[in-house]
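Weekly puzzle thread! Below is a chain. First person to post its structure in token form gets bragging rights.
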Amino acid sequence: MGERVIRCAGIMSGTSLDGLDIACCAFTDHSIKRLWSQSFAYPHALRQRILACQEPGFRASSYEWLRLNADFSRWVSASCQKTKRPHIWAMHGQTIAHAPSDFLTWQLGDPSVLAEATGTTVVSHFRHGDMAAGGEGAPLVPAYLGFLYPEPQALLLNIGGIANITCLKRGKPLMAFDTGPGNMLIDMAAQLVHKRYDAGGRMALRGQPNHVWVKNMLATHPFFQLRPPKSTGRDAFRLSKMPNMAHADLMATVSELTVQSVKHAMQYLPKSYAKTPLLVSGGGSKNAYLLEGLGATPAAHSQMLEAEAFAFLGFQSLRGRALGGKATGARRMASPGWITPGRNWAQVHELIGAYL
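Winning reply:
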């Protein structure tokens, strides 16, 4: 009898708030097969509410926070009901706040709502165990990258809302940490002229970056003074701190900050990686300004990587496999994600038994 296959669908909504990515993979102990993927755009009103609650000084009643969580959870559940059904949903949720220095992180998304709506078991709350063990709670994607890239050396940069870099040695993460803003400030600047993002980096390519401002940010912003392991979030970087300039120059400047913050972070990598090709995944892998500035190329598995990664982490969590660890600064590998059994739990329990 062959290995039992478990279908896990990762659900990811990133810092850019550009939508919901769902990617389903079939897992065995030794293989991953991509089955399907689908994306859903954020409802405008819900997106605006989530953006508003991340502004400095925002205040809301406990009822309003609960209402936001419920509305987000119902939207995720409705989106999932429009896809094929996996054995497991692996839901990251929408990050509202991430303060690793205080061991705090908060993602919207109620796994009980999703499990009830779909009848399917849910794995969630992936970051909490790592933070309880003293880790940053991020990035967690490197464990999956190691599965994809077993080469002697690999260097991968994921540019989502926040960018993070991973050094792999024979499939094992040596280092993994956030480098700073990825697409987040770029998207904010694009939205000033009613664009969701800078398609292909074309707006940035028409402008001239303010190198003095970029250099000053790298020298003074608290995040860039930290050594890895480190992680950050949307609340740490704001367009409101930008000087006045032409819009094309603004696009070039925030894009240049992403480029230079990655280069700034690379000083912490082992010297043996100095000539290792840099592979880029995430939305930034389509941005010509970023790729040219970094001298990088898109990774083979670039578009749904984060959603796939959480599908992988869901599979590992079902098996009781620890997450995080040394790459995030944790004292030890930590407890896995939380499991919320759905109506298919008996089937899942039987399937996963072969892997325990």
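Puzzle host: Confirmed. Bonus trivia for everyone else. The first helix runs from residue 44 to 53.
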